């Protein structure tokens, strides 16, 4: 039986641990907080992150990272992107040397401008064929409710991708494989920023024409960046690109969209942050790193630029809108 360590017991780490366990994989979930590990191990619940969800029998949980990692074939990295480097450094002495390292995080590191697979390679020294990413339209609460969900598992080594695919395929969770790690990571990181934008538009009262324009032009700008970084455009047209973009831009369950909506309604960044109750809206930080990355490749990302101006330049959403619509008109 495949053995997995899921490192991070937030919403998605917990939901994906359930998927793996439901698929027949042996799973240990590592929680940063001892009380969360105890709740999962003893009562089969994670009330802070997935309230109301009954977790499967046989799902182990611990607060001790070495215990979770011991003998794992797959190590699932389920912490927020800006904390991945620090967490990996703390775990690196205990990572099994031939395990597949599977990142669930959707972001670009501030400062280094690295994608999560690059951070993982740098910190652990693992070869790129051992590093995989999972990305797609995967709202944790819907997965935990066992609603039909598809995703993409990307790894340069297709044998490893298929092994992870088999370890998490269930009646409600359908993983596809891909070798385009860059495309999946660019899609996952950029869609959070576009979802912030979509939420901002909804928050100031705009309707579906605007929403559709943001999603479509958001796809165009994330595809431009992906291609510049070596991704395949087909990946951005798939589940990890347009699929995730649509789910995140339209769902009230998305933390990024909800965060943007609060800003659109006139709340400050601090007020919106407080309302997340400690959960991550990854796009707030990644809009800076993505924008810097895009500029370094000469790629235009006007929606990302607008989100960055609102979040970090502190301009009102209405002013960002005027700036966007004042851009030079051009062919599609
Ligand atoms: N929630 C979803 O629906 C979903 C779906 C797909 C991908 N993701 C991605 O998965 C990653 C994790 O998201 P999540 O929803 O599980 O996040 P979350 O905010 O619900 O939980 C984060 C978890 O990481 C732990 N953690 C460890 N070190 C941390 C640190 N230094 N700072 C903050 N938290 C730390 C927290 O204790 C917590 O258990 C993100 O990159 C997110 O974009 C989330
Ligand atoms: O809640 P969000 O905005 O972090 O989005 C969750 C997932 O990434 C959707 O696929």
Secondary structure blueprint with pairings:
Layout: E1 3-7, H1 11-22, E2 26-30, H2 34-43, E3 60-62, H3 65-69, E4 74-77, H4 84-91, E5 100-103, H5 116-124, E6 131-135, H6 140-144, E7 149-154, H7 158-168, E8 173-178, H8 181-203, H9 208-228, H10 233-236, H11 239-250, H12 255-264, H13 269-274, H14 283-296, H15 302-312, H16 317-325
Parallel strand pairs: 1-2, 1-4, 2-3, 4-5, 5-6, 7-8
Antiparallel strand pairs: 6-7
Nicotinamide-adenine-dinucleotide (NAD) is lined by residues 8-13, 32, 49, 78-81, 83, 87, 104-107, 138-140, 279-280, 282.
Protein name: Glycerol-3-phosphate dehydrogenase [NAD(P)+]
Binding site for NADPH: 11-12, 32-33, 49, 106, 140, 255, 280, 282
Main location: cytoplasm
């Amino acid at each position: 039986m495949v053995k997995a360590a899921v490192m991070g017991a937030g919403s998605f780490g917990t939901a994906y641990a359930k998927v793996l366990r439901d698929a027949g994989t042996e799973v240990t979930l590592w929680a940063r907080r001892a009380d969360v590990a105890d709740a999962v191990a003893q009562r089969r619940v994670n009330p802070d992150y997935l309230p109301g969800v009954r977790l499967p029998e046989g799902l182990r949980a611990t607060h001790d990272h070495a215990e979770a990692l011991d003998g794992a074939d797959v190590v699932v990295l389920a912490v927020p992107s800006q904390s991945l480097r620090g967490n990996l450094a703390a775990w690196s002495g205990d990572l099994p040397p031939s395990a597949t390292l599977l990142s669930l995080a959707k972001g670009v590191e501030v400062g280094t401008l690295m994608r999560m697979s690059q951070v993982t390679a740098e910190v652990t020294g693992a070869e790129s064929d051992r590093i995989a990413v999972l990305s797609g339209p995967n709202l944790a609460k819907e997965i935990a409710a066992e609603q039909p969900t598809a995703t993409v598992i990307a790894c340069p080594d297709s044998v490893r991708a298929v092994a992870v695919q088999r370890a998490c395929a269930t009646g409600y969770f359908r993983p596809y494989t891909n070798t385009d790690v860059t495309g999946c990571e660019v899609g996952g990181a950029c869609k959070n920023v576009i979802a912030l934008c979509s939420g901002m538009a909804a928050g100031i009262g705009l309707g579906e024409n605007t929403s559709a324009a943001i999603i479509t032009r958001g796809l165009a700008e994330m595809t431009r960046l992906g291609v510049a970084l070596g991704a395949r455009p087909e990946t951005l047209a798939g589940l990890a690109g347009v699929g995730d973009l649509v789910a995140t831009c339209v769902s009230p369950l998305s933390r990024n969209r909800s965060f943007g909506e609060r800003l659109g309604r006139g709340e400050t960044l601090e007020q919106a942050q407080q309302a997340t109750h400690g959960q991550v809206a990854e796009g707030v930080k990644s809009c800076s790193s993505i924008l810097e990355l895009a500029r370094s490749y000469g790629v235009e990302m006007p929606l990302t630029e607008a989100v960055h101006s609102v979040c970090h330049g502190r301009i009102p959403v209405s002013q960002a809108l005027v700036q966007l619509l004042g851009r030079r008109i051009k062919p599609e």
